[in-house]
């Protein structure tokens, strides 16, 4: 399977905007390892589905809206850290980086 490493601004811009050639779908991967079982989310969809989902959720993510949510976002982060502090081993992705945005976005959207 071909792998592309893209570093120049114009090249990165093309990769990010040409979804027909460079898809965001998760089953594309660099290494021959089993794919992660992930739910479909806005980051792993291509237009037009990506645009449709983004237009629905973008209203919740304006600077003013996020400023109002700052205390709740901090509280969610603090709760996750409190759980981590009790652990003898930590997987920072599983225990903080992955649940933080999911929990915040769920709260923002009222899910």
Automatic annotation (TrEMBL):
InterPro entries: Cyt_P450, Cyt_P450_B, Cyt_P450_sf. It comes from the Bacteria. The keyword NAD does not apply. Keywords: Heme, Iron, Metal-binding, Monooxygenase, Oxidoreductase. This is Cytochrome P450. It holds the Pfam family p450. Belongs to the cytochrome P450 family. One of its GO terms (molecular function) is iron ion binding. SUPFAM superfamilies: Cytochrome P450. Coiled coil: none annotated.
């Amino acid at each position: 399977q071909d792998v592309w490493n893209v570093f120049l601004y114009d090249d990165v811009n093309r990769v990010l905007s040409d979804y027909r050639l460079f898809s965001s779908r998760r089953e594309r991967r660099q290494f021959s390892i089993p794919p992660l079982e992930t739910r479909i989310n806005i980051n792993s969809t291509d237009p037009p589905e990506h645009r449709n989902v983004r237009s629905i959720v973008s209203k919740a993510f304006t600077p003013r809206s996020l400023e109002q949510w700052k205390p709740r976002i901090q509280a969610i982060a603090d709760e996750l850290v409190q759980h981590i502090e009790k652990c003898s081993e930590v997987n920072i992705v599983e225990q903080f980086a992955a649940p933080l945005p999911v929990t915040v976005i769920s709260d923002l959207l009222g899910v």
